Recover the amino acids of this structure.
């Protein structure tokens, strides 16, 4: 913001710089406003913050006003101890600055005020204060998932809230306070699946070899009259190569791609009639060297009780890619399983060793139901992007092609 006293100062210095070429002694001549050390502006401003050791009410806006007719405020910067900036507005005449967003409870703030007098000389004043703690019973904590580590490019970020939130304004505050950053950057947003559960995913899969950080800035933030932001431990993830396995239930083959290049084609068997494998995109949840599978666990009429090896889990209800040597004659020819993708022990061992949680397994040409987007593992990718974005309070109203706002857009730094 430019004002006439400051403009005069810059023009004066320009003249003197030109004079330097002709042999002048310098721009910092005595009495020039820019050559002076900023004066203490304590007597030039008034502040409505707490006095002494008292703590401020976080519900009360901050206000800094200029005193006297000639002086004015040129800039105010307010940050808390976590580095969060407080939005504010400075009047056009420089006489008043006030906050436009709430303060956080239980936070320490530093307010840096810049002023100038009638001659354009700069003044400075640093103010510090703390805000009162929020009641513990009214705190909202957040837990992020998955755990830290390396994952495939299909892994969504999950956020579990310590209590349900239904109000749209409160949800918007929460979304804007949950930050996802990625290198390389990608477009993405949060989606509310339940009142206390939301997921974050990019429009497409994560970039390969990406570094992802997830953090909460809710600490001390007022969400509504009875709820304040609490703890949220940050997490850091990374991705490796893009691994996608396509299971063609009609052709009885699974083709595996790494970064778009085919690296293996494996004869398989999938779900028999009545137990058809679900169509759609599934995210690898976990890997278990041996799993006991029984007919009673899924309610199958025909009895079985098997130790199954090299089991790669795809759903909460027990769909796996695993070794099935007992059905070797059907691999590549017929579907005889109870919904899992079966293959030879050697092929299952290879797949088990090659994939990691977050990698993608996509089933096509099955007569089974579609994989749900929520409620049975991580089916997030089965929802179209336009519908996914509608599950965000902050970004639901964007037109196609518009980038998400604020922290809902992945930033190019960690």
């Amino acid at each position: 913001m430019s004002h006439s006293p400051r403009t005069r100062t810059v023009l004066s210095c320009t003249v003197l710089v030109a004079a330097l070429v002709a042999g002048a002694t310098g721009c910092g001549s005595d009495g020039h406003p820019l050559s002076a050390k900023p004066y203490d502006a304590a007597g030039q401003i008034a502040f409505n913050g707490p006095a002494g050791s008292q703590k401020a009410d976080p519900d009360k806006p901050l206000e800094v006003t200029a005193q006297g007719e000639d002086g004015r405020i040129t800039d105010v910067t307010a940050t808390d101890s976590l580095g969060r900036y407080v939005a504010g507005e400075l009047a056009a005449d420089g006489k008043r600055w006030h906050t436009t967003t709430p303060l956080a409870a239980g936070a320490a703030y530093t307010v840096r005020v810049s002023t100038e007098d009638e001659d354009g000389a700069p003044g400075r004043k640093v103010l510090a204060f703390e805000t009162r703690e929020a009641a513990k019973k009214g705190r909202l904590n957040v837990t992020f998932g998955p755990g830290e580590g390396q994952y495939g490019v299909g892994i969504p970020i999950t956020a579990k809230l310590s209590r349900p939130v239904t109000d749209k304004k409160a949800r918007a505050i929460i979304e804007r306070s949950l930050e996802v950053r990625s290198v390389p950057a990608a477009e993405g947003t949060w989606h509310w699946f339940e009142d206390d559960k939301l997921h974050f995913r990019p429009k497409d899969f994560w970039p390969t070899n990406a570094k992802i950080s997830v953090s909460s800035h809710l600490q001390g933030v007022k969400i509504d009259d009875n709820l304040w932001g609490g703890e949220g431990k940050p997490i850091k993830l990374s991705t490796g190569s893009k691994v996608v396995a396509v299971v063609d239930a009609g052709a009885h083959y699974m083709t595996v791609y790494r970064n778009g290049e085919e690296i293996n084609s494996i004869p398989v068997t999938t779900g028999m009639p009545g137990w058809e494998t679900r169509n759609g995109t599934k995210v690898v949840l976990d890997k278990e060297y041996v799993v006991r599978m029984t007919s009673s666990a899924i309610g199958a009429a025909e009895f079985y009780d098997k130790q199954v090896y090299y089991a790669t889990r795809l759903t909460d209800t027990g769909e796996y890619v695993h070794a099935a040597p007992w059905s070797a004659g059907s691999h590549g020819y017929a579907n005889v399983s109870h919904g899992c993708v079966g293959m030879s022990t050697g092929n299952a061992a290879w797949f088990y060793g090659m994939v990691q949680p977050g990698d993608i397994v996509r089933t096509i040409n099955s007569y089974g139901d579609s994989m749900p987007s929520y409620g049975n593992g991580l089916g997030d990718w089965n929802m179209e992007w336009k519908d996914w974005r509608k599950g965000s309070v902050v970004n639901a109203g964007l037109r196609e092609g518009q980038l998400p706002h604020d922290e809902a857009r992945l930033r190019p730094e960690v």
